[in-house]
Amino acid sequence: MWRDRADVYLGELLRLEAPRRIESCAGLLGRSCEGDGHYQCLTCFDDRLYCQSCMISGHAELYLHRLQFWTGQFFWKTTLAELGLRVQLGHAPGEACCNPFPGDPKFTVIDLDGIYRINLDYCNCHTAQPRDVQLLRRRLYPATSVSPETCATFRCLEVFQIMTFMSKISAYEFYWALSRLTDNTGTNPPPNRYQLFLRMIRQWRHLKLVKRMGRGNEPSGRAGTTVNDLVVKCPCCPQPGINMPDIASIPLDKRWLYRLFLAIDANFRLKRLTVSSRERDPALNNGNAYFVEETRFAAFLKTYEKRVADETSSCNKHDALELANIRGGKGTDSSGVGAVVCSRHDMKRGSAVVNLKKGEKYLFMDYAVCMTLLLNAPPDVVLSYDIVCQWRKKFGARIAMYPEWLRPPQPANSIKYLIPKFHLPAHIAPCRYLFSFNWTPEVGRTDGEAPERGWAASNGAAASTKEMGPGSRLDTLDDHFGDQNWRKVACMPGQLLKKIKDAVKHREEQVVGFVGFEMSIEDRTAIPQWRVAVHKWEKDPHGVGPKGNPFIPLVRQLSDAAVRLQLAEEEATRTSDVFVRHDVGPCDFLVQGLQLEDMQTRLKKEVTELGNHPTDRQKANIQQKCNCLRRRIEAWFTIQGVYMPASTVQRMTLATSSTPVQAYDVPLLLPSALACIQTDLDKLLANMERRLRFGRAQDTLGKIRENILVRGGMYRVKQREVRGQAMVTRAATVLIRIDGHIEEGFQAYQRHWNALEKLAVPLACADHRMSLRALNKADMVNIDDSDGSEGRRTLSWIWMANINLAGSAGLQDALRIEWCKSRARARRYQEEAEFVRVEMDRYLQTLESDAAVWRSRAAGEGAECTRHIPGFVEGARAYALRQAAIKETMHGNARVLFSRAPGDYPAVIDATGNPELDYLDVTRHVDTLSMYSSPAPSAE
Length: 940
Fold this sequence. Notes:
Layout: H1 2-15, E1 39-41, H2 52-58, E2 67-70, E3 75-78, H3 80-83, E4 86-88, E5 101-102, E6 108-111, E7 114-117, E8 119-122, H4 131-136, E9 140-142, E10 150-153, H5 154-167, H6 171-182, H7 194-212, E11 260-267, E12 272-273, H8 294-304, H9 319-322, E13 332-334, E14 336-342, E15 347-356, H10 362-373, E16 381-385, H11 388-391, H12 395-401, E17 415-418, H13 429-434, H14 450-458, H15 462-465, H16 470-520, H17 527-539, H18 541-544, H19 560-573, H20 586-609, H21 616-643, H22 645-654, H23 671-674, H24 683-721, H25 725-763, H26 807-859, H27 872-898, H28 926-929
Parallel strand pairs: 4-8, 6-10, 11-16, 16-17
Antiparallel strand pairs: 1-2, 2-3, 5-8, 6-7, 9-10, 11-14, 12-13, 14-15
Helix pairs in contact: 7-16, 16-26, 16-27, 19-20, 19-24, 20-21, 20-24, 21-22, 24-25, 26-27
């Protein structure tokens, strides 16, 4: 529809290139003027023409408006300064100064829609303030405090600051965008004030930060700022003395609700090149915000860097360990940053961000953790880290080595160590069971992946901050981290309401599911033992060891080698004249048949890869392999005639064509191939093949998983490190080979699965379906490639097929593990609902405390060093009252929002008498539970 009107729009744009009519000056406020109208203001949305005198009079205080001059043929850009307008500082608008002092003739103002030169007069009376103060009182920020020649408007700095938060625009892009708005032709470019703009925006960031944190309202002022004073703190995390009761008054069974959840991670995108130095570019925040104080940190590193040795990993090779000793490259001063954040609400902690010098070494992360634990943290802490299984081993010993001022007050046994959920599958099995958020009690639905989400919001600033000086970079990132924290504080009520609704919904589902699962178990005599085992493990998961972990399978998974061993042992116990009919036993006969099947598949693949024009040498090589394979098959047929006489007849029936069959296409006619056409199938032999196929399918699935993990790792390495045509080509070649292995495994699994399905009917046994499934290409995805949000991640079944049901022992093992997992899911959601409700209370308490602090500040007189400034006390009091009103308004809005949360349920034992469900009354689900049989008597 707009296309039909496009010509009209174009015409209107061109119409504005000339005045409506050439006339005399339009005059001001309805008064007539006899002058000729030549000037038009583009900022005033007024298309009339004015004379020079009226234009100056009407814009006495609008000196940054954009003008154009009608030459008689076209409009040409001009400025109020060129028309002769002078701006008087130090006096009220319209009031003349008796002794004005002219500013620099090239005085430049950087505004939101351009860069302008203005004619400036400073006040030079006996009441005159310093020149930089005169500019500030007009909301113009001077580039220097001595004889300023450039300034930026407050609104320009404010808009740029917000734009850097939201779009991560760099100062370079913003400034030169303003330059092009001023002149996009190059005929009259504005003066270059880019370096001065960088200085102003850095000072502006710092001043806004200390102002918002109330330092101007404190008697000690900005100079009295200490560690953690410039931090937007998480209102939902427990803060002793602010939003939680005294720890001694909290019942022991409720202490877990007042744990502090912290997550550790490093980001190698936020690196810094070797630009400037700390002496030339010191940080203004000086370690009082999110980054630690650099001088003290550098002294710590110098003292302990060589005393903390690298450790050999007992787990898989993780990037954090492999990259620990890798520098950021030539010309890099900092390879990235390491940080500690609140893992339940994704907020940066104060004095918990460090610059990494040489990868993600323990020493750097230790410092960040210890610093944040020293800052008003409760005694109970949960620490999550993607390599916590290695990092925690000697954490206590390293702390004992560090200076007294760095040692956290929390007892060692009150800190719990876990691995983020998304990173957990990359660890070895013992780590996956010991450090899982899913199985650990009293952690709710916390996933520990908060830093990863936080880095996504910060990485956009990496391109601009990497070339900053050390101090500028720290202050800029501090500003970004503070804005991220504040946005989370502002959005927290809505997020908490969403989380409580989600927790209550899934709490009901998981509780009903657990009760239903337990009631559906026919033989529940083992459940009391499972309950005792899981309680014991939850109290001391590291003390009970792997054998005491109820989530670990106790029945060994059957592999191809294990199946062959079992069959060989069974053959040894059988009477030879009953079953073994040849020097080659039936197990070896079937194993040879499966090996021949694999050889046929590989040879056929080689033939397919030859293409349409193979060389004579390639043909000869293939023919030799075909001849060798055919001889092996014919020798195997001799043994097959002994064990499977019917196969000879069937083969003669199939050999009706005169065209010779290639060796890789010869049907082997194993029992699975005859299962559908032979009524008198040898059940013993068929069962042997079923067991061998099942073991091989397990092995093949394991190899597929390994190759998929390798492929995922190769992709990450390629994206992160591979550069240049030669390296890219080599990496692509390796990936092609890996894909070939995956495809080969897929075809092998398909053969085994199809054979198992064929054997299921005559043997009346489909046990393989309990741990295996039909494999599709869509199932072969990496463990971290999944749909849905992080909290609702679903793994492909190939990563969960780790239980092999081997008779009744295997069934009991599987039921025990599923009972433990179902119980854990139910309890985690019950805990999550409790956590969120307490966090809602803490949010309100924090806002009440903040409002009270600002009210007390309003009663004071502000910083002593600035009380002499006329009007300062009134301004500081007004600002404090406004901040208190904001906190109180947020408190009221949050209370209204929280009133929509689902109501509490009575904290009583449910109607089924299940002692595991002491958080939730499920009597309201009696109709849902009635479909199950009556429960067994409780053991407790």
